[in-house]
Specification:
The complex is a heterodimer of chains A (about 775) and B (about 325). Chain A has about 775 residues and is an alpha+beta fold. Among the domains of chain A are: about 220 residues, Aldehyde oxidase/xanthine dehydrogenase, molybdopterin binding domain (Aldehyde Oxidoreductase, domain 4, 2-Layer Sandwich), CATH 3.30.365.10; about 160 residues, Aldehyde Oxidoreductase, domain 3; about 140 residues, 2-Layer Sandwich (Aldehyde Oxidoreductase, domain 4). Chain A is about 30% helix and about 25% strand. Chain A starts with a strand and ends with a helix. Chain B is an alpha+beta fold and about 325 residues long. Chain B folds into 3 domains: about 60 residues, 2-Layer Sandwich (Uridine Diphospho-n-acetylenolpyruvylglucosamine Reductase, domain 2), CATH 3.30.43.10; about 120 residues, Uridine Diphospho-n-acetylenolpyruvylglucosamine Reductase, domain 3; about 110 residues, Enolase-like, domain 1, CATH 3.30.390.50. Chain B has 12 helices and 15 strands. In chain B, the strands form 4 sheets. Chain B has a 5-stranded antiparallel β-sheet. Chain B is globular and about 55 Å long. The chains are: A alpha+beta (about 775), B alpha+beta (about 325). At the A-B interface, α4, β9 and α20 of A face β1 and α11 of B. β9 of chain A pairs antiparallel with β1 of chain B, so a sheet runs across the interface. The structure holds flavin-adenine dinucleotide. Flavin-adenine dinucleotide (FAD) binds next to β3, α2, α7 and β11 of chain B.
């Protein structure tokens, strides 16, 4: 079955953009030749293993590594003591998150305390994996167990066990001096909230909770490090951004970035979770001590227990509307479980909460809260899904109370160009309304849903998308092809999308471009693959590089014809002599003459675009059937509508939309970190229940194209916004099916069943 | 003070591997010395448990070359002989078995996914003795017996007496389950197994229920019924009273509900990450009812799809 996709507004003005060429990395991937991090094997390489804390919260009184170090085959053991002395506490900012160096260091190797089950305590390098594992059992750690807290609301209480002795709450950006697990409190205000509620005819207010959920990439974390005697360190790893790994590793190890070369291997998924470093610094320390390359690979259990889930959340939202359904006031209190160290996407959550609607009066309070879980990491539209679940459920309730169609109420309030969001930003041209209109017009929405215990839900979501730095270098080959070196690791087919934007400028077939992902020594600085930015920003860099190539080639054509540069035009992929139209050279022909025309042609694009506050909107439709006796939900039909700006390679846009939808469905129905006594009990894919193919219907996609006003091709990022509305759409569908409102994610069968029972009891009682 | 009490998952350690071709050889290997030998059928439990460090061994004895363990034969008067090394895909690939023992197919076709079913055996499912094993309730319902060979000869044991605790069973050192014997089925009979899982595949049963029923010629009343349950006690349960209640009763909502309630009353589930106990208890009633109705419909010649048919494989 192929994706059923409709491209709306497709303007047919491009040759390459909008087509579906085969991806350049496809053959290697389907034939197993692509090289991933765990494929690294260097001569004399050692195997590393990490000792992890079994306790959610404990003080480390001592670590005795002598027995482990004495085991035959063990070459080195390191603990926090082996880290270089901490320098200045720099803050590293990486697209969808910031990292304080001190926190990164203690996450890599715990200092005086372990803050979560799975916290890295020591690392071993040995001649085999078995010996390294055996050595872990010989390391004696003397723990003083401390009370733990894994619930975000509990962690905010005055009497909660404190994780960090030195953590004080930042109130609106200023240090309050108050010791607490609340790392920061932020606030946005717009208009006059009290007036807005006073004028409202209808007010709804509810509390919502969402669980910690993992990005669930197929490939687990890995790193191989080789620290040579000349002081040069090379790291091969699976990452969303080689330069980010370089910055973090250099920072932790106290060496200049130029001493660290990071080679990004093919990546088996990231979704935000492969931004922080988890293994490279330990592998590097072990390599320095042993003079050998050291490889460390995580098990799935390690991935769950030690790497970033998205924050669990508590969200309280109050909405007011007049009789016509116009939203007048909105208030949100949002607490995100940052995990062991501060830095949840609370800012993004606070921006996104009311981002889909034009609401004149608003107040948002956001709290970044530390607790005894792994440090949370970015996860596809970080922070937006949690808050969207609350708002989109309440909008549905208002529509129901007013007897309005759920799409009409959203259209009535839809965010538009010129609207001021609660954080103060003003929208440029955006496609919120268009996604709603396309959803309404879709055959899915127009076809009535029949049958018992079935329901339809809709929800709209938003993600802001990033611009930021990207570099592309293009070299023209004499056979008319182009080598394109870019710095963005390719997670979702971006090599193709970047090459296509380059090809479009020069009128070349996509196949003539050979895109490659460079390491930190072979390409200019490029921010990581995240924030839906790669097709937007790296594509923009490719556009700039192509234009430079074009300019140079025009001079080459002039040289060839012994004409003036002004006399050469570039048209439809050909270089033309303006006054002698007989003189015409294709790109390929001109390339073949380059040897005689003064040497190599290289173009570069180095950009740092501000994406504006354009962002991408999604609207989704979900039909469900609920088994009333068990509470189990079956998704019957699912349609995702997204504004892509311009869809460069529609298959990869659809792929993003389907992938985000599948993950959103996972959040909605079954995925969660299941805790008991501070420990995660379901750290395997057996019991951490991501949707399988039998859990998903074919996800239908509708690409809307409202071009980004600044981008040369009108691209908006499409990587993230599709994960945002599915949980709310499914919650609304469940309500439509069986009349119960679920306010906690995941909406597990037992929760739905209990809610149905309560409803029955309530009906009997009245 | 707590010192380094790590729950470590060790990677597979080295072990000796043998694949004997006679039962005697196999028994000698297993009983021979003090080694912690383990039997390997499909390995879909064993290898995982060794890798996770839940089990350890220095010798693995593969039974896939033993002819006795590869038998899969049906005889209308003798019933079904199901060798302990026969993988699930062979069972649901056999049309006679699909027709005659649909309840067994319900279970064999939902173990893991299609790759797992290429290897996993019903014998291994039983010998792993997990309370949530999918084939055990229906084996109980079909009144299956275990044929066990050991150093002191062979013995036969009803499946309901086989498991003793989570992961534990009556097998003694050196003993091998050779095959399972399912008695032949009566004319107006039917069986059905179903489980509740939060997803639509790849989960361990939150609750499982298997039922075998024999009806009178008109298909109006029960002559006999047997019910087995999974994941609601430390071992799979034989809900004997619940089945007996139906004997001679008319097929009706009321009689089936009563049997379901009786089955529910013996369930003593735990709360864990897979489900809360109270919810499990509720599911026992729902699933027993559905299993009984499915069995009745099959006994009446109606079509009730199994997982293979449902997923269009
Ligand atoms: C991904 C996955 C999904 C799964 N899904 C399910 C599921 O949905 N439902 C379910 O019930 N199970 C499931 N399982 C568990 C497993 O697949 C089944 O229990 C399977 O039937 C085991 O059969 P096997 O032949 O692979 O057993 P093995 O792993 O070979 O053996 C299991 C145990 O029994 C012992 N043993 C095996 N044969 C004999 C014998 N003849 N005599 C004595 N002892 C013996 C072994 O020593 C071992 O301890 C799943 C496993 C995986 C990996």
């Amino acid at each position: 079955m192929s994706a059923t996709s409709t491209s709306v507004n497709g303007n047919g003005k491009y040759k390459v953009i909008g087509t579906r060429p085969i991806r350049p990395d496809g053959v290697d991937k389907v034939t197993g030749r692509a090289l991933y991090g765990i494929d690294m094997n260097l001569t004399g390489m050692l195997y590393g293993q990490i000792l992890r804390s079994p306790h959610p919260h404990a003080r480390i009184r001592g670590i005795d590594t002598s027995k482990a170090a004495a085991l035959e085959g063990v070459r080195a053991v390191v603990t926090a003591k082996d880290l270089p002395p901490a320098g200045a506490d720099e803050v590293i900012s990486l697209v969808e998150g910031t990292f304080r160096l001190t926190h990164l260091r203690s996450n890599i190797l715990a200092g005086d305390k372990v803050l979560y089950q799975g916290h890295s305590v020591a690392a071993v390098a040995a001649t085999s994996l078995h010996i390294a594992e055996e050595a872990l059992r010989l390391i004696e750690v003397d723990y003083e167990i401390l009370p733990d807290v894994v619930d975000v609301v509990a962690a905010m209480q005055e009497d909660a066990p404190l994780l960090h002795d030195d953590l004080t709450t930042q109130e609106f950006g200023e240090d309050s001096g108050k010791k607490s697990n609340i790392a920061s409190h932020i606030q946005f205000k717009l208009g006059d909230l009290e007036k807005g509620f006073a004028e409202s005819d209808i007010i709804v207010e509810e509390e919502f909770n969402t669980a910690s959920v993992h990005q669930g990439y197929i490939e687990s974390h890995n790193a191989t490090a080789e620290w040579k005697t000349d002081g040069q360190l090379t790291v091969w790893t699976s990452t969303q951004g080689a330069f980010g790994v370089q910055k973090q590793t250099a920072g932790i190890l106290g060496i200049p970035v130029s001493k660290v070369k990071v080679v990004p291997m093919e990546i088996g998924g990231g979704f935000g979770g492969k931004i922080p470093v988890y293994l490279a610094p330990q592998a590097a320390l072990l390599s320095k001590l042993t003079g050998r390359a050291v490889k460390i690979v995580m098990t799935r259990t390690d991935v769950f227990q030690s790497t970033g889930p998205t924050p669990a959340s508590y969200v309280k939202v109050k909405l007011g509307a007049d009789k016509t359904g116009k939203l007048l006031a909105a208030e949100a209190n949002i607490a995100f479980a940052a995990g062991a160290f501060p830095g949840s996407p609370i800012g993004a959550g606070a921006v996104c909460v009311f981002s889909c609607y034009d609401i004149p009066n608003g107040l948002v309070n956001g709290y970044d809260v530390v607790l005894n879980k792994p440090r949370s990491a970015a996860y596809r539209a970080p922070g937006s899904t949690q808050v969207n679940f609350a708002v989109e459920t309440l909008v549905d309730e208002i529509a129901e109370k007013l007897g309005m169609d759920p799409i009409e109420i959203r259209l009535l309030n839809a965010a538009e160009e010129g609207m001021r969001r609660v954080d103060g930003a003003v929208y440029p041209r955006i496609g919120c309304r268009e996604t709603l209109e396309q959803a309404r017009a879709h055959e899915h929405y127009q076809t009535p849903l029949t049958g018992p215990h079935r329901g339809r839900g809709i929800a709209t979501g938003f993600w802001m998308n990033a611009g930021l730095k990207s570099t592309v270098t293009a070299s023209v080959n004499e056979d008319g092809t182009v080598n394109l070196m870019e710095g963005s690791t390719d997670i979702g087919g971006s090599r193709a999308s970047i090459a296509m934007q380059f090809a479009e400028v020069l009128g070349l077939p996509a196949e003539a471009i050979n895109p490659m992902v460079g390491d930190t020594s072979s390409v200019g600085y490029t921010e990581l693959t995240g924030g839906s930015r790669v097709t937007f920003a790296t594509g923009w860099a490719a556009y700039e590089a192509a234009n430079e190539v074009k300019r140079i080639l025009i001079t080459k054509a002039a040289l060839y014809w012994e004409a003036k540069v002004e006399e050469v035009r570039f048209e439809d992929g050909d270089f033309i002599h303006a006054s002698d139209p007989e003189k015409r050279l294709s790109f390929k022909e001109l390339a073949s003459h380059l040897v005689d025309l003064g040497g190599p042609v290289v173009g570069t694009g180095a950009v740092d675009p501000d994406s504006g506050v354009g962002g991408s909107f999604t609207t989704c439709l979900a039909d469900v059937e609920v088994d009333p006796e068990t509470g189990k939900v079956k998704i019957l039909r699912f349609t995702m509508v997204q504004d892509a700006g311009t869809a460069i390679h529609p298959s990869y846009v659809e792929g993003q939309m389907q992938g985000g939808s599948a993950q959103g469905i996972g959040w909605a129905l079954n995925e969660e970190y299941f805790y008991s006594e501070g420990r995660m009990k379901n750290a395997s894919f057996l019991d951490y229940r991501m949707p399988t193919c039998l859990d998903l219907p074919m996800i239908e996609t509708v690409i809307v194209e409202v071009p980004h006003p600044q981008h040369p091709f009108g691209v908006r990022g499409v990587g993230e916004a599709s994960i945002v509305p599915p949980p709310a759409a499914i919650a609304n569908a469940i309500y439509d099916a069986v009349g119960v409102r679920l306010r906690d994610l995941p909406m597990r069968p037992d929760r739905i069943f209990s809610a149905c029972l309560e409803k029955q009891a309530a009906t009997v009682a009245t | 003070m707590v010192i380094g009490d790590i729950e470590r998952k060790l990677r597979l350690q080295n072990f000796e591997y043998s694949a004997p071709v006679t039962v005697k050889e196999a028994i000698d290997l297993l009983a021979g010395d003090n080694c912690g030998a383990r039997i390997l059928a499909g390995g879909t439990d064993l290898i995982v448990q060794l890798r996770q460090g839940h089990l350890s061994t220095d010798r693995v004895v593969d039974i896939k070359r033993l002819p006795d363990c590869n038998k899969l034969s049906y005889d209308p008067s003798e019933g079904l002989i199901l060798g302990a090394a026969v993988p699930c895909h062979r069972i649901y690939g056999d049309e006679t078995i699909v027709k005659t023992y649909p309840g067994l197919i319900d279970a064999a076709a939902i173990i893991g996914g299609i790759q797992i079913q290429g290897r996993a055996t019903v014998g291994g499912n039983l010998c792993n003795s997990s309370p949530s094993a999918d084939t055990i309730p229906i084996l109980i319902a079909y009144r299956a017996e275990c044929e066990i060979a050991g150093p002191t000869g062979t013995r036969k044991v009803p499946v309901e007496d086989f498991c003793t605790a989570p992961g534990k069973n009556i097998l003694q050192k050196g003993e091998i389950l050779l095959a399972l014997h399912l008695p032949s089925v009566a004319k107006s009979s039917g069986a059905h197994y179903l489980r509740f899982i939060p997803r639509f595949e790849m989960d361990i049963a939150v609750v499982g229920a298997g039922a075998y029923v024999e009806l009178d010629e008109e298909g109006r009343s029960f002559k006999k019924a047997r019910i087995g349950l999974a994941a609601v006690a430390p071992t799979p349960l034989f809900a004997r009273e619940a089945g007996d209640l139906l004997q001679g009763k008319e097929v009706s909502e009321a009689s089936i509900d009563a049997a379901a309630l009786a089955a529910q009353s013996i369930a003593r589930p735990i709360s864990d990450m897979r489900a809360p106990a109270e919810y499990r208890k509720h599911l026992v009633k729902v699933l027993t009812k559905r299993a009984l109705w499915g069995a009745v419909r099959r006994a009446r010649g109606e079509f009730v799809p199994n997982a293979v048919q449902e997923n269009g494989r």
